[in-house]
């Protein structure tokens, strides 16, 4: 174990998202807390509880008794989702660096945390721990689509955790009042970003993702941070124009040949395609307006019910 003189002097805050997976989250907290305690003079753990059912957090409190750092449990007033819950935790964190754990996956070695931290000390304000290997098909499609059409220079990847400097946190907070997708905003804040790759272990642990929440987040992210919506609208518009031109040419050719046609059928086919394209464009526009409305007029995207400070014998 390192002596206090050899430990890092930077204050570091670790943020954990808890949602009906207290056992796995407590194990992750114990591992991360041990690493921080052995390597940093000052640190804190902020656990944000976004669970759909109440809990006394016995497992987390038991783990916190073995740590010297300050442990805070933030209870959300209702289920808000990963992004809003972590926004609440970040509002409370006071560290020079923040480490965010969205899920309680335990497939990495403990030393990976210090590897990412040392990478941050090289001048990178955002450092992500990225597992090697194949990702899920849906995630692969999303990241490929996002990275192809993104306006930023740093691509997105599947992350296990992310370290952010206080400068990056301040920059993101200054960019927008409502943080919809933390990963994308930090990658597009204009500061230097880096990845630390590792070989994941097969553990089977970790909370199951909410597919509905992930789909909404992916859709909003593509609208906000890429040009996918514009390309889709343009493609639909061009397709409608091409079909209209084809219908015109077809009508003229049939008229010149003098062959009878069923006008009602042709009109209905054209109208069906035209209205399909029109409603598709309107759907994208309406979704765009809904997202922009939340960003511009919503003052707070989360509400905190209570904050419990856990004081143990070692931190007194």
Distance between the amino and carboxyl termini: 21 Å
CATH superfamily of the largest domain: Spore Coat Polysaccharide Biosynthesis Protein SpsA, Chain A
Gross morphology is elongated
**What's the number of structural domains?**
2
For the CA atoms, what is the radius of gyration? 25 Å
**Structural class label:** alpha/beta
The CATH top-level class label of the largest domain: Alpha Beta
Q: So, CATH architecture of the largest domain? A: Alpha-Beta Complex
* Low-pLDDT ranges: none
Query: Can you tell me the CATH topology of the largest domain?
Result: Spore Coat Polysaccharide Biosynthesis Protein SpsA, Chain A
- The count of strands amounts to 8
| Strand and helix order | EHEHEHEHEHEHHEHHHE
Major pleated sheet:
8 strands, mixed
Strand content: 15-25%
State the helical fraction.
Answer: 40-55%
Distinct helical segment count: 10
Look at the structure and give the mean pLDDT: 82
Spatial ordering of strands, largest sheet: 7-5-6-4-1-2-3-8
Structure commentary:
There is one protein chain. This protein is an alpha/beta fold. The chain folds into two domains: 8-209 and 301-315, Spore Coat Polysaccharide Biosynthesis Protein SpsA, Chain A (Alpha-Beta Complex); 228-297. The protein has ten helices and eight strands. The chain has helices at residues 22-39, 58-64, 82-92, 111-121, 137-149, 166-175, 182-187, 211-225, 228-257, 263-297; strands at 12-18, 43-49, 70-76, 97-101, 126-131, 161-165, 193-198, 304-310. An eight-stranded mixed beta sheet has the order 7-5-6-4-1-2-3-8, with helices on both faces. β1 (12-18), α1 and β2 form a beta-alpha-beta unit. α5 (137-149) runs parallel beside α8 (211-225) and α9 runs antiparallel to α10 (263-297). It is elongated, with a radius of gyration of 25 Å.
């Amino acid at each position: 174990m390192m002596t206090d003189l050899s430990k890092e002097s930077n204050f570091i805050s670790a943020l954990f998202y808890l949602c009906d997976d207290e056992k796995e989250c407590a194990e992750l907290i114990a591992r991360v807390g041990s690493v921080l305690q052995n390597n940093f003079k000052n640190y804190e753990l902020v656990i944000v509880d976004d669970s759909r059912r109440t809990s006394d957090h016995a497992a987390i409190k038991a783990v916190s008794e073995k740590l010297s750092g300050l442990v805070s449990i933030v209870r959300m007033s209702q289920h808000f989702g990963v992004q809003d819950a972590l926004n609440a935790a970040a509002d409370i964190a006071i560290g020079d660096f923040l480490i965010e754990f969205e899920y309680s996956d335990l497939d990495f070695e403990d030393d990976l945390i210090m590897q990412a931290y040392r990478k941050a000390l090289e001048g990178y304000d955002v450092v992500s721990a990225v597992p090697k290997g194949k990702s899920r098909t849906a995630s692969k499609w999303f990241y490929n689509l996002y990275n192809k059409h993104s306006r930023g220079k740093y691509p997105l990847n599947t992350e296990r955790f992310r370290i952010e400097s206080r400068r990056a946190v301040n920059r993101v907070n200054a960019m927008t009042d409502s943080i919809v997708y933390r990963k994308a905003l930090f990658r597009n804040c204009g500061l230097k970003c880096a990845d630390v790759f590792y070989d994941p272990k097969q553990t089977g642990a970790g909370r199951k993702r909410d597919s509905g929440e992930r789909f909404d987040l992916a859709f909003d992210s593509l609208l906000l941070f890429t040009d996918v919506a514009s390309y889709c609208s343009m493609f639909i518009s061009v397709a409608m124009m091409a079909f209209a031109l084809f219908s015109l040419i077809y009508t003229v050719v049939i008229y010149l040949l003098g062959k009878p046609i069923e006008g009602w059928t042709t009109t209905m086919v054209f109208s069906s395609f035209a209205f399909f394209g029109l409603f598709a464009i309107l759907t994208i526009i309406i979704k765009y307006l809904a997202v922009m409305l939340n960003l511009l007029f919503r003052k707070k995207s989360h509400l905190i019910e209570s904050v419990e400070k856990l004081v143990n014998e070692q931190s007194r």
